[in-house]
Design goal:
By secondary structure, the protein is of the alpha+beta class. It contains 14 helices and 6 strands. The radius of gyration is 24 Å and the shape is elongated. Strands 1, 2, 3, 4, 5 and 6 form a 6-stranded mixed sheet that branches.
């Protein structure tokens, strides 16, 4: 169910933005697109000071992808003082691009350390008190304290736990080799498997259940990511073809995972990937945001348990999940962390490039169901 909150002044709108976004934007440009006087979404991008015209063109061009947008509110969040922030130049470049695209600029605002101001009708306004924004906030709404990077800090599991997961990964490799042998020769050549490897072998034969079970993860102490299950999931994520199937499962369920698997098998056999939307590129239906939140939380947990290239693959997948949610700042942070431990992570390279240029998945511009 949608909640409608009205804002009758610029101060009220500025008071609402942190609540709508879940963070306090810093060194950012925020564009709020409107249709017939009702806001449709919120776009935040890192502010740049070089090539302002190109920045304005890209930012307004992104806003134009929102269906039915006819007007925008432009907001700059900047450190220092308004007079020396360069806000006027950036807002003017954004306004010119918006006019060229047929978008009415409802207001052009700047928030700095010494106050806030509207540049809609005054090119050199005097700062107004930030207390106006605080007083305009609807009663009962708590103001977030973190900026857009809040919550992206990564943690590590205790060394002994990581060592156990690493040992379980060796058993996972053994169990996987057993399955490959059985598939190739149709003969049971399992040899001597200890109890843990036997459990891993069981989960390998029903990996979709393991993927779904992992979404119940809440913390490293809840028993969901056992050493064996964590090893199995990390083993899958370290293999791009299996990783893609797992991400499809986590985004859209078992049927979608099966379709991705069939497409990969067809590509391996014929060299042609079936036509259709590529969900990894942000095409097709929007994944359930609540499910994606659980996926990202679980992938961060896997990264905390992993070392080396397995940590890199978990972080690369976390970067994709954050990007799929539209969290470009978090996606870039996870992608860079992945590349720092494994520079060969191609998915991390792609996500870092997309997030650094403000590119969002296509489904970010489709309307969610009421």
């Amino acid at each position: 169910m949608r909640t409608i909150i009205t804002a009758d002044s610029s101060a009220e709108l500025l008071a609402l933005i942190p609540h709508l976004s879940g963070y306090v934007p810093r060194e950012s440009v925020v564009v709020v697109p409107f249709e017939a006087g009702r806001s449709l979404a919120m776009l935040r991008v890192d502010r740049v000071t070089d090539d302002i015209d190109a920045f304005a063109a890209t930012t307004i061009g992104t806003a134009c992808r929102v269906p039915d947008v006819d007007a925008v509110v432009l907001v700059i969040y900047t450190g220092g003082e308004l007079a020396t922030s360069g806000a006027r130049e950036v807002l003017e470049a954004l306004r010119i691009r918006a006019d060229a695209c047929g978008l009415f600029v409802i207001d052009a605002l700047a928030v700095a350390e010494n106050g806030w101001a509207s540049y809609r009708d005054d090119h050199r306004p005097s700062p107004r008190s930030l207390d106006e924004i605080a007083r305009a906030a609807p009663a009962g709404l708590l103001r977030p304290t973190d900026d857009q990077a809040g919550g992206s800090t990564l943690v590590r599991a205790p060394k002994e736990r990581r060592r156990r997961v690493s040992a379980a990964l060796m058993d996972t490799e053994r169990a996987a080799n057993v399955l490959l042998t059985q598939a190739r020769y149709s003969t049971d050549r399992s040899g001597e498997l200890d109890a843990r490897a036997a459990r891993i072998l069981t989960e390998l034969t029903d990996v979709a259940t393991a993927w779904e079970t992992a979404l119940r993860f809440t913390s490293l102490d809840d028993g969901i990511l056992t050493d064996e299950r964590a090893a199995l999931l990390l083993w899958c994520l370290a293999r791009p073809s299996l990783r893609d199937v797992a991400l499809a499962h986590w985004c859209h369920g078992a049927d979608a995972a099966h379709r991705v698997l069939e497409a990969q098998l067809e590509w391996e056999e014929s060299g042609d990937y079936p036509a259709g939307p590529l969900f990894l590129a942000g095409e097709g239906p929007r994944p359930d945001p609540a499910r994606l939140h659980r996926v990202l939380h679980m992938l961060r947990g896997l990264a905390a348990l992993a070392t080396g290239r397995f940590r890199g693959s978990a972080l690369a997948s976390a970067a994709w999940a954050a990007w799929a949610l539209g969290w470009g700042t978090h996606a870039g942070a996870y992608a860079r962390a992945a590349l720092s431990v494994d520079p060969s992570q191609r998915l991390a390279e792609i996500i870092e490039e997309l997030s650094s240029h403000g590119h969002l998945p296509g489904w970010a511009f489709t309307r969610a169901e009421p």
